[in-house]
Amino acid sequence: MLAGDTPIPRDGGGPVFAEPWQAMVFALVVQLQERGVFTAEEWAQALGAEIREAIAAGGCRDGSDYYERWCDALEHLLIAKGLASHDGVDALAASWVRAAEATPHGTPIRLENDPQRRIG
């Protein structure tokens, strides 16, 4: 479970998500924490660092980029633990962009739609 003091936008007591991906990254962080990949303290430190860095760089102070900070914190925490690499994350992100560009409007974007995807 997330640390009790982890700030999460709430409405009526439950988390608020403007987009499905926000709920997905939230759930991913909770699952990784429950499985012992990182502790609540490690997560709080990583997320806090990302929020402080974003604010120092002139980022949103209204919280509208909150879940982007979750993504950044998760990425950096997994890299720090040796479970991901900068190159691997960048390559996967580029693959998703190519897949999105190759996917007809109105159909789900799937990684296998990346025309440069290597199979096997």
From TrEMBL:
Coiled coil: none annotated. It comes from the Bacteria. InterPro entries: CN_hydtase_beta-like_N, CN_hydtase_beta_C, Elect_transpt_acc-like_dom_sf, Nitrile_Hydratase_acc_put. SUPFAM superfamilies: Electron transport accessory proteins. Residues 4-97 form the Nitrile hydratase beta subunit-like N-terminal domain. Gene3D superfamilies: Nitrile hydratase, beta subunit. This is Nitrile hydratase accessory protein.
